[in-house]
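Q: Joint fold for the lines below.
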Amino acid sequence: MVNQNIKAVIGSLSGTPYEYGAGGECEGWILHNLDPSETLTFNVGGQDVKVGPKTWKRVDCVDDSVTVSGTVGEFNIIALENGDAEIERMASGSSSGGGGVTVTGIDTPDPGSSSSRNPFQGHHIIISKTPGSFSSVRYFELPAAPVNWLAYIVKDGQGDASANNIDIAPNSGQTIDGGTASAVISSNYGSLSFVFDGIDNWSIV
Amino acid sequence: MKNRNVYASSGTLSGSPVTVRANFMPEEWMVTNRSENRLVLSFGPDSDIAIPAGQGVRLEIARQECTVNGTGDYEIEASEILGSLDMA
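A: Joint structure:
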């Protein structure tokens, strides 16, 4: 069922937590961190959800408010009574593929940390950026709301995964080949492809 | 494949809000920011959504119109899923 109403706010932190009330219980929330460098923490229904810089997460939770905290940073909070929503990072030259599938995402994401991974935003993911200052590993996570049965291809585009591993974790509640462990690209110019089963598991294909 | 009724619109904003109205009641809106600036999308009071440069928002909402504001190029696609009929 689509949303009949939505509530949304664009806010900005300056050190003080911000509480947003939707004016009624919502089934889902889009938590969108617009800041280019800060990780923000959104508390929904008593659960802390960390959202990395320039990324978003969709959370299913029946609640009527969200509290966001962090040092600084601009954010979107979108309250959904039902239905769905997503924020997409557009690839330059997005195009429609065959079979009615629209290819919307060549993603070149920024690496996150082991405690704050960046979820992939596209289907064809080229890792070409160096690890953070204090890590030799580039941490990412698979998307929370993927397109089912579509291959998400991750490629070491920089050719240095042997020295700087690419560590890919399942999102919350998901598994990779039945387990919760990360998949790691550790060979130069290596790649991995993942397909989501529509329930909770990613298969490496 | 489901049949879809689609309304599409695009344009360039110059700092004044533009309201786009479909000629049917869509169930899904896809608004894409093709500019280098942040745009703001709204489906009515208390529903402002920032769309960063080069990103888009897909939202399932039954609204006939939306407003977009900012500076730069945008694209909007509104659609509804129509019924299908199989004949044996």
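Q: Anything notable?
A: Chain A touches chain B through 26 residues (CB under 8 Å). DSSP finds no helices and 19 strands in chain A.
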